[in-house]
From TrEMBL:
This is Redox-sensitive bicupin YhaK, pirin superfamily. Gene3D superfamilies: Jelly Rolls (2.60.120.10). Transmembrane segments: none annotated. SUPFAM superfamilies: RmlC-like cupins. Belongs to the pirin family. It comes from Lentimicrobium saccharophilum. It holds the Pfam family Pirin. Residues 207-309 form the Pirin C-terminal domain. Residues 53-140 form the Pirin N-terminal domain.
Length: 338
């Protein structure tokens, strides 16, 4: 223990360690080249382990993509994904026929529940300049009572996500975007209905925090016993309750008191994840997260039998037309154009 506010500080890798009710968080940061006619990189793919390209080469990765970077069709069961796109775009397609393109501040909240397949591709829409991509993908566990909920996804569009701006005594601003969890009386759009975040007493918060150089902010205490972690991924340095923290470190906090954050000499970006723990066994095998090994075996058996609804798309790595704007089409046929 460093002081009465901080439990521990730890360095971050590509996959960020999280605490119950979260499973983990991935931070994707890729500086892609200009796109080609197929919305992939207009650059040589030689020397890359295509299909498993997680090594940062020339500033970017293909991940599981062969032509377009991203994650072709793959199944999930038993948890949720929250995909927060700071820069760039994601093309979504799933086994229920839903689809979408979102990015530049948009958030997709998807409940895998009883099971579905989806693809998450990163279309390189700019053909004359570089395509920057930065996003967080956060996995949130589902309690046993909701593991087999109907699959569902919703969009939290950039324009609809509220912000709280706090100005300190020196006139420097801290801006908090509320993806989940209220702050200072400001309430974000509702999460997916079967989410652990849908229970107010669970006090789930997902906030992105931008601090001007030298800004100070007092993070208010939580009401209930929760796990609370700050992820400091961009900036020069921070002081958290007087303790200096370097970039790309996580700070686990005691939640029951105010925590003072003082930014250093450069603008800073942070992510905060908070929530009351579910306190249930977690058994994960690849894309499935259940409570017991037997439930994992059953998930594989169900997927082999049903393919979680099959795959209605003509390829496993679908991207939408280049001129298509931001949109969402849901199972059942309703759609939104932005």
């Amino acid at each position: 223990m460093y002081n009465t506010s901080i439990i521990r500080i730890r360095p971050l890798g590509f996959q960020w360690e999280t605490s119950d009710p979260f499973l983990f968080c991935l931070h994707h940061l890729d500086d892609y080249p200009a796109g080609n006619a197929e919305l992939g990189p207009a650059a040589s793919l030689a020397g890359r382990n295509l299909g498993q390209d997680f090594t940062l080469k020339d500033g970017w990765r293909m991940y599981h993509g062969q032509k377009v970077p991203g994650f072709p069709a793959h199944p999930h069961r038993g948890f949720e994904t929250v995909t927060v796109v700071l820069k760039g775009f994601v093309d979504h397609s799933d086994s229920h026929g839903a689809a979408g393109r979102y990015g530049n501040g948009d958030v997709q909240w998807m409940t895998a529940g009883s099971g579905l397949q989806h693809a998450e591709m990163f279309p390189l829409l700019k053909g004359e300049e570089r395509n920057q991509l930065e996003l967080y993908q956060i996995w949130i566990n589902l309690p046993q009572s909701k593991k087999m909920a109907d699959p569902y996804y919703t969009m939290l569009w950039n324009e609809e996500i509220p912000e709280v701006s706090v100005v300190d005594e020196e006139g420097r601003v801290t801006t908090v975007r509320l993806i989940a969890g209220a702050l200072n009386g400001v309430v974000p759009p509702p999460p997916a209905p079967d989410s652990w975040a849908a229970g107010p007493g669970n006090e789930v918060a997902i906030w992105t925090i931008n601090m001007e150089a030298g800004a100070k902010w007092a993070l208010p205490p939580a009401v209930n016993p929760v796990n609370r972690t700050l992820y400091f991924n961009t900036g020069a340095s921070l002081k958290v309750s007087g303790v200096e923290v370097q970039p790309y470190h996580a700070i686990e906090l005691f939640p029951g008191q105010t925590t003072t954050i003082e930014n250093g000499s450069a603008p800073a970006k942070l992510l905060m994840l908070q929530g009351r723990p579910i306190h249930e066994p977690v058994v994960q095998y690849g894309p499935f997260v259940m409570n017991t090994e037997q439930e994992i075996y059953q998930a594989f058996a169900d997927f082999r039998e049903t393919q979680f609804g099959g795959w209605p798309w003509h390829r496993t790595d679908p991207v939408h037309p280049p001129a298509k704007g931001r949109f969402a089409t849901f199972a059942g046929g309703s759609s939104i154009e932005k």
